[in-house]
Records
---
Amino acid sequence: MTRGWQIALVVGLLGLLILFYQGLWGNPRLIPTVLIGTQAPNFSGPGVESSGTLSLDQFKGKVVMLNFWASWCIECGLEHENLLTLNERFGRDPNFVMLGINYQDKQDDALDYLRRRGSNFAHVRDVKGAISFDYGVYGVPETFVLDQQGVIRCKTIGPIIGDVFAKYSQRLLPGLLSGSSEPVAC
Amino acid sequence: MIIELGHFAVVTALVLSLLGIAAPILGLWTRNSDWIRVGRQAVTLIFVLLGIGIAALEYAYLTRDFSVAYVASTSNSKLPLFYTIAALWGGHEGSLLLWVFILSAFSAVAVWLHWRTQPAIMPYLIAVESSVMFGFLMLIIFLSNPFERIFPAPLEGKDLNPLLQDPAMTMHPPLLYMGYVGFSIPFAFAMAALFSGRLGEEWIKVTQRWTIFAWMCLTVGIMMGGYWAYYELGWGGYWGWDPVENASFMPWLVGTAFLHSVMVQEKRKMFKVWNLFLIIVTFSLSLIGTFLVRSGVLTSVHTFATDPERGLYILIFLAVVMGTAFGTLIARAGKLKSQIELDSIVSRESVFMFNNLFFLVAAATVFLGTLYPLMIETWKGSKVTVGPPYYNAVFMPIALGLLFLMGVGPYIAWRKASLDNIKKNFLIPLIAAFGVTALALALGFRSPFTIAGAFVVGFVTTTIATDLGKVSAFFARRDRVNYARGLLTAFAANQRRYAGIVTHVGVLVLVIGIIASTVYQTEKVVSLRTGDEFTMGPYRLTLTEIRDVRGPNWTAKEGRFELYRGDRLLTEMRPQKRIYDASQTPTTESAIYAINMGHVFLTMPEIAPDGTATARGVINPLILWVWGGGAIMGFGVLLNIFRPRRRDE
Amino acid sequence: MVFGLLAALASAAAASTVDEKELDIRTREVAKTLRCTVCQTENIWESGSPFARQLRENVRERLEQGQSPEEIRAYFLSRYGDYILMQPPTRGVNWLVWLGPFALLLVGGALLYRTLNRWVTRTPVPPAVEPLDEPSRRRIERELHS
């Protein structure tokens, strides 16, 4: 085995092990969606708790936090309290609105879920999945944050708990609401 | 109590594995064979202890002891007996225990089998196998313990994943592990050769049967997985190129390269370093395959509960094994300046080398395809899918190239193939190849895969048939018997060679089956009510009724379809939509009818409340050749293993 | 007998031969090219997951509305990124994975050929010997082919 092949072997092995290591610590939550920086697609749909129709256009000019959830989703249950807390904290700001999008669910199950866990913001039913397709959603929970210009700034895959919750509460939402043009910590 | 006993046994096994590493080393150092004997006892005892551990866990399963967390998560009081026993390897912790148990069994057998004939290898064999066992046992005891109790004990278990409640799926892990583990024996012998500096051909001859046995287990194990996917997952396909499948395919590819390449070393004493390299790669891929699917490296986006700690340990273990093995190879490779004498590029040695090239490129392709998404994600942060269209485009040409080589290798001369030799062996097959291709085109086949396949299959079939014909004729003439007897005599005269040919025939059959069932598969999905019928190719299916049925731990809606060809009723097919009681998981059970060596495959994916059923029918031409080909491949290996020993063995 | 005939006619009228609608066939064709993002490596036609089912229906609706398969794929590509296709799109860095295997084969083959050549030129040619008689030659040929 010549020197060249020996070096190639060692380099190859190291590269492989580094790749595996990266795979272990890679955080699936931080997959940048292709929609970041694009205009959020409008949608409209029947409310879960209300009988009318809700649409995104109604909240033009506000910072919108869009949370996709389902009653059968365990992780959604984990984050629900945090969502209520965030809405309590920021909901008083007229420039903020939180919206839930109920995904692949039955209305009765969804109502039951909200009744059990509490609800302080509006929810829209994504009847045929069109809204979730528009937003590139493929599971729950997924959360999008839109700025006051209606541009998607952030996407979080997974429940908003722990560090993520702290980030939303302390940096992300205040930053967007302040209207500053600084890049947000996503 | 029993569980704690099992746990204690496994912990003791872990301690003994350390002894299994230390004792042989001590024995070598002090040149005292008594220490080696201690190592042998250790290996034997580890096997017994792990057997006790497995037995204890099975006891918990059979007595429905749901205070054991693992038992509770993989079984249920209504689970049938057969699946209750198999549930032991239905989850991560238990399947690891099975892996190391099989390893201990193979190690013990190898040590006892070769004790008298291979005394110099023994200390290294014991130490290497014990090291691997140590690695696995550390993982099991500290990070994946199947013996853990749960308080309070649930009244009812969660149930074995319904997709696993199936005969093929229960056999798939044990066979696969036997394949992975089987390659550890030639690996240990290779490491022995490297560590000791005794780098002759001995280890190849001794491990030949181990290698092909491991290869056979891996082949059959992979086929079982494919068969399970075929009828359980219900889309009529058997190979999806998904990371879990690929993880088992890669060691198979390199293992096949290895088992061919060592034939050259046996015959011509060449490629020593290369063969050592190949077996180290094969076994490394076995370990990578075992671990990749459990470490959290290959997961989909929405798996949040990965355990990076476990994955990190696995990675360190991999790094140690591969580092030691390849490091020793690099260090010792200098001592192996084998004089490679090659008389001509047109020779069997050369063909074997091209065989290796193609197999390694094939393995590299699967590797690249499997890890490319991870690479892109790490490097650029975006995600791509590498799915079947990629592999079909890229892998199939390589596979066809290999198939062509399979027709050349056995019939080209060693050292230097004369023009005469080439003409005699390959002219007619080449002509036949063109003939078959022309025939295929004439019959209207247009898919490039089919046309290229026709050429290669025509070529290889003719080389094999000509060889068998010539040699049968020779012996028939010599002994004045008929051709069949002549063939048997030829077979007996060189059983190893012809057993290999049998395996090659199996590969041919497999490839034909794959081409037919992939390219010419037809599918139809309809919605229908009771009394309706639909046609599919030459067949007609009528839905006669939908009824409720009950199983031991499931309920189902079963559709009864009558399958007609013309006016003749062939059979009744009963696909089901099942719901398993415990987990409320739905599964789609397929109905299969074999005809003309193919399948009519029927599933009923949905039943609407109003009684409208969705039926999905697939015709898979020649699919039995896929499973049959695999069986013939395995049969060839058995013929090889159980051949009468010749004087030089 | 008349009764039996009437009954037979009645049942024949109720039952019917069903077939795939062309729309279903087209849906299947497009569905096979889109990845089920919550499954291991299945397309949305093979997968039984609810996500796949909804996506199939969405594809069906789009086909009904008159969108072409390319337009449908482009839409999903714009929302989900390259991941939604069943193979890496042939652009940019992805050429690495598409051409890599063939490059490896060619480079490997060239290296192998060169190495083999080197071995052949290094091997001493055995001295010329008397030509063999036929029976011996045939026996040796047979040995070499076993």
---
Amino acid sequence: MVKKINPDELQKIVASIPMISASASRLLQISAQPDHELMDVVNLVKTDANLTARVLKVVNSAAYGLVSKITSVDRAVSYLGEQVIVSIAIENCAGELLGKELAGYEAAGGELWKHDLRAAIAAREVVIQSGADMSPDLAFTAGLLHDIGKALISDYLHGTAPDAVEMISSHDSLDYLAAEEQLVGVDHTVAGYALAQAWQLPEELTAAIRYHHEPARAQEAFRPLVYAVHLGDSIAMMGGYGTGSDSMRYKLDPGYADYIQINANILANVMLTVDTEFEKLSESLSDSGEKN
Amino acid sequence: MGQIILGVGDFGCSNNPDDEIKTFALGSCVSVIFLDPKTRTIGMAHVALPDSTINKAKATEKPGYFADTAIPALLAQMAELGCDKRGKGIIVKLCGGANVMDTNDTFQIGKRNALSIKKILWSYGMGAIAEDLGGNYSRTVSISIAAGQVTLSSPGKPSWQL
């Protein structure tokens, strides 16, 4: 018998997850401000010795192959760029959560984080290559965090993957989101939203976590971003990087066309870029990890 | 047993009965499988996109990535193991090419991959005798060279043969 997650239980789960660090929280706030500068990121990194050490380790890792070592935070941040810094900060404080095995989805450890990185790159590339009027950096960050709720409900979904798959193929559930709700009472976007609120994430990111499968329900101001994440998520799954049993079992909302102009050619180029950039990013992050 | 793992855009073949060829999580990608009964050679390509004209440099570096460059590349590699270079006598199986639910034309890359592959196979006078294409789920494929058996799996489903 699967245990249902009622609102009290959900709050308990959220309370059991460690808070993100103050510097990561501040970094996400900065990233969500439309007029921020890279210098704001540099100054933030400097306030956190642990983050500084990680950033310097990544920039000097074999993946970047620098001839001379970078020792200043200013140079490291401008060399790596905001998106890599955000990835490092999130991995640093939520790595355990995002790296865990998703038994409820029959996904091995690391699959969620890889999916998140791919979705982040894809959301960014959708924005850049379609010329949509929004921040590629923010699309990237929202992509990294969009599925965080899966890590919260996965244990409760343990053993349910065959049922969920069957419920969808027999049309008892419209998609995997509906199946999660039917099985444990809460889907991964609702669980993620509860965590985003506890973490006091910027409302843009909270909206992307809550509505990435139902972008039309997001507040108008955030809808372009939420659609970018919606597409980034789909592209990650299409590229073979889902999170197990739920992969591809979500609906595409064609309403993206009101905000994002993308044709088959642009999509093919986005997928190609995601493959290349993912290799680079994951190599640089894991490289530095091994040296710890 | 030797395991030949193919990533996205990789292709490979073997006639060693101890080997197994495997590729993980085909989302919209399509796995093209060539079985040559005469030489007992099996080859596979993990095709990501239908058409190499969008990036010629990538096609040169990784011909298995695109449908139109993957098939000639796989045939050429299998010819080195004694198979017919135009694919005569080779049995074809196809799997993958999934789509997300309610997809629109633009996002039907899985379908476009499959169509492009079939068109190119046709130009060689080849066609698939078995296929497991489309749907809304990701597939992992493995083939044992000794048995020539194609096994598919997907999280939440029991594995099946093609």
---
Amino acid sequence: MAKNILGNTIKVQRAKKDLTQEQLSELVGVTRTTINLIERRRFIPSTVIALKIAMAFGVPFEEVFFIDDPSQ
Amino acid sequence: MTTEIEKLNKRRKNIVKGTFVTTLIAFIWFMLPNIRTGLIENSYQSSYTALIGAGLFWIFSLLIFGVLYIVYKNKLRSVPSLYAAVNDDRIKMAWLKSYRIAFFAAFFTSVLWRILTPPIYSSLFGTSSFRKFIWIWMMKIIKIVRLPNGPFLVLYIAVLCLFASFLFFSREVKNG
């Protein structure tokens, strides 16, 4: 499975807030596997889920998600 | 610590796994006697005993897992936030992809089964010994999937593909 171009800092943000994937999944309202796959860039989340993740960390959206296209 | 979301997610996975395994058992049960009579005993007889046995086993197992799924679904419906969490975008996407794969699997199986119908091939293969040899083996393969097994075969393959692809798409990535 190839990594997608939507980069994220979820792992860093989780470490800052001392949150496990399971705790974050509960805050966002998704399964832990979904958080795991988003974090590993294997799944592009919907806008709602992405916003919920940013809200769970209490930071602006662009601090969590960014475009990471090596071709550009 | 395992959250309620994870417990319910695991429960659904177990139901899907259970349905997949019992369908696979029924499929093997259904196919093996046909392969034996078709390829080894060189007989044109389809195994109706296997068809009935496998069919009954499959229906019974589907009923059990169906009841388990209804109980699970009712529990989910009572808590809307849990329902939304367990059926998140990724899961919905996994189901959609799985249905697409199951549809194509059913489509191609039925097309293949229809193409391999004897009247088409009897005119294609002539009288040379090599052609006869191909024809005999072609017939042996066709016998495995001929009526009344064909529709059941399509159904089995569609259901197997649906659950196998759902388990594949909803799996967790361990490394990389």
---
Amino acid sequence: MPIRSQIEMPKQSPEERTSNFEEVACGYDEGMAAAEASRCLTCLKPQCVPGCPVGVDIPGFIRLVKEGKPMEAARRIKQMNALPAICGRVCPQEEQCQKNCVLGLRGDPIAIGRLERFVADQERVSGVEMPEILSSTGKRVAVVGSGPAGLTVAAELVKLGHEVEVYESLHKAGGVLMYGIPQFRLPKEIVQAEIEYVRKLGVSMHLDSTVGRLATVPELLGGGFDAIFIGSGAGLPNFLEVPGENLNGVYSANEFLIRTNLMKAYKFPEYRTPIQVGKRVAVIGGGNVAMDSARCALRLGAEKVYIVYRRGLEELPARHEEVENAREEGVIFELLTNPVRFIGDSRGFLSGIECVKMKLGEPDSSGRRRPIPVEGSNFLIDIDNVVVAVGQSPNPIIQQTTGGLEVSRHGTIIVDEETMRTSIDGVYAGGDVVSGAATVISAMGAGKKAAKAIHEYITKKKG
Amino acid sequence: MSQKRCSAPFSNTQPCRIVKKRAMTPNVKMLEVEADAVSQRGKPGQFVIVRVDEKGERIPITLGGTDPKKGTITLYIAEVGSSSQQLAALQVGDNILNLSGPLGNPTEVKSYGSVLCVANGVFIGAHVFLIKALRKEGNKVVSVIGARTHDQLFMVNEAKKASNEGLVAEDGEGFGLLKGLLAERQFNHVFTIGSTSMQRFVSDLTRPTGTPTTVSLFPIMVDGTGMCGACRVTVGGNTRFACVNGPDFDGHIVDFDELVSRMRYYTPQEKIAMVLRERGVI
């Protein structure tokens, strides 16, 4: 009989970690990895693989861990996934590969993410071996955006012998992996190391280059590229549209996280981008971005950090693990609560928020129970900063500058779901700009599909 | 033989070398920087974002001019904070680590007829860039430039030469001059660029007559591509992002009180950084 429980992964204690930006989870050592891997039944018909959006050979790589061959295990993963150290850390495995693990029927499923992280970290330390690159096809592909979708497309196509150029608007490649997800969950050195791998495969990266402001998509298409992939993400922050939202002290989660993560404002004044975090911070929203923002606020010195969410605990869209981490660190959950307005002082600085209690009614179009305000339940909380984390919409620059590109009323690009092909011949899209804000791995899955279709398209194309 | 270019470059390159530097006033420096792609695509009203080094802030700067043949752009820097002081301290031959642009929407340059352009402070450079473009479209341009004191004025002759009529206001006499000018003459369009107080003043003057007035705003920004929302401005009761919806807006419906307040949010941190810079700590 296999052991029923997963091998625990060591973590920094909550007291310790709220005063630093170091990674919270410390990873398995070799012994832990071997012990966890030995629980795997190596099923002949694995239930885990269909749950992986990029189709990693999970039993195959775990078997190599069992055999004490972590380097080979890493290479096995990289056949399907160029970014294993990232996915091992931020994928919601509990809803994907681990969800249907046979072990899960009578105990814990195998800890796939922790093992993936272990082998990727081992490989990074001992030196990464490059895979075979097919000989040059002479075809050129431009990739817009260097987030998870764009990096996946780039890595897949360059391995097939195509010339790939990535255009990134920020000064660092990585997209949401760099500006969004905090250091303590996904160290930026690790993101850069995996991007370096993609670069070494032969992908050229153009930083500081905003497609739509510099070259437009039609210009790229007319300028020698055989195909274009748009993976420009969901960059435009949504607001609540309640009074007082433009008071000083109200941040969008994007701004709060860009300052903290990409610009390293937690090291101000050594790093020169400032951030202001008062004693009491309220984060509005219940997703992973909200949890990230709340936990950053604690680390930036806030004494009281609230998550204000209009539905209940069961409905929190964040990963269970992240909610637990936030709770352990002392984040206060104000559930079934919604802000009605933000209150400012005479100088235009935020001083508090007025909230109303909510109750859950009938399910709405999303299948979740609709929150309804409870009349007369309004109350005030003294607050110095608000972080609005209620989702993002697609960045509009590309859509506005690409004639003939079909876009939904939410601003997302419309594609054929199998091939990720847009309404323009030779132009493909995937990731958050198509799906709306979702996960790293779903963007990578879309990138994978698009890469396959782009390869077929440019291979058939004459000239 | 120089080859004829078939199209402007698709991307910016890093780093960007400074090829020319001039002190325009005691606290305004002009930098001419190698930035081929921006030089060929940048238009008046647009801006770039620079980052001096690995630990630097992203600093938005309005485009002050382009030279597509040389592949350079001109930036005017007011030394008002520690980051701008650091940038202005760079010398010819030094590199700027990152330069992104052009960003924001270009000013709508078309045939208006009779146009008034008003600028003050460090934005006089960008103002001359705009006047030249407006003249090319056949507009008749009256320009007013101003500064708090005489020694803070620069490009006086360039502004006069570029305009059909170039006026200069010194030592705070600008508001009186503008009041008189707008009372006496009719303009089809007014453009302002410069201090928020000046832009607000001009918008207040033209609101009663309804003369269309375009202001160029520069709220706090981080990415400059619509991602952070730091640059949100209330215009006609709606929240707009200066980077993707602007930076030009209808001055008659901008909420200037909110804008001024938001621009001051990081003043305490700015003071700390200035002191530490003076002491050589950062």
